[in-house]
């Protein structure tokens, strides 16, 4: 099965695969070539994940800038 391109994956799927790769690399049971391939994939996933986080942060900033007059209040899970 071919791996999805990181930019086409959800953030959660990216993190899940990255966790798996880290576990595999920490085991130390991989051949050098396999370890390098997983490392390259991990770098690609990490960059894609960071890009998704940056995009989300930018969207939140834009939303907050567009509503500067809205009052902020503490979140309460219980109705008042």
From TrEMBL:
Catalytic activity entry: Exonucleolytic cleavage in either 5'- to 3'- or 3'- to 5'-direction to yield nucleoside 5'-phosphates
Keyword check for Hydrolase: yes
Annotated signal sequence range: none
Keyword Cytoplasm in annotation: yes
UniProt-annotated location(s): Cytoplasm
UniProt superkingdom: Bacteria
Alphabetical UniProt keywords: Cytoplasm, Exonuclease, Hydrolase, Nuclease
Pfam families attached to this UniProt entry: Exonuc_VII_S
Listed GO MF terms: exodeoxyribonuclease VII activity
GO cellular component assignments: cytosol; exodeoxyribonuclease VII complex
GO biological process: DNA catabolic process
Top-level enzyme category: hydrolase
EC number: 3.1.11.6
HAMAP family: Exonuc_7_S (MF_00337)
Its job: Bidirectionally degrades single-stranded DNA into large acid-insoluble oligonucleotides, which are then degraded further into small acid-soluble oligonucleotides.
Subunit relationships: Heterooligomer composed of large and small subunits.
Family that this chain belongs to: Belongs to the XseB family.
Entry protein name: Exodeoxyribonuclease 7 small subunit
Source organism (scientific name): Vibrio scophthalmi LMG 19158
Lineage, broadest ranks: Bacteria, Pseudomonadati, Pseudomonadota, Gammaproteobacteria, Vibrionales
Gene: xseB
